[in-house]
Design a protein that fits this description.
Layout: H1 10-23, H2 27-42, H3 62-71, H4 81-88
């Protein structure tokens, strides 16, 4: 633990001393608890992207089955390489045919 000096108004210090006496706890413990709670409530929350919840899937069980639904199409790592590779290789592009010349 690190020692820190905090300057507070006399009225606040009196209230802190009274609270510590009523609860039978050290003032430092009350200050640590209050600071921890204050900081926890001040942490920025990560907002969901604007498109979250914008679409209807027609399913009512998404929350309960989210992992199953997300991972149902993934292959385990121990699947034979030939099968796993076929899902990740790109299709070869066909060469473009020469443009036809019109007879005029």
């Amino acid at each position: 633990m690190k020692r820190t000096t905090v300057f507070v108004p006399e009225a606040l210090e009196r209230d802190l001393q009274l609270l510590a006496g009523r609860e039978g706890r050290p003032t430092a413990a009350i200050v640590r608890e209050a600071l921890a709670e204050y900081i926890a409530h001040r942490q920025p929350t990560r907002a969901l992207p604007s498109f979250a919840g914008a679409f209807a899937s027609g399913r009512s069980d998404i929350a309960e089955r989210h992992e199953e639904l997300l991972f149902e199409t993934l292959l385990p790592q121990n699947v034979a390489k030939g099968r796993a590779r076929s899902t990740t290789t790109r299709a070869r592009k066909r060469p473009k045919a020469a443009p036809r010349r019109s007879k005029t």
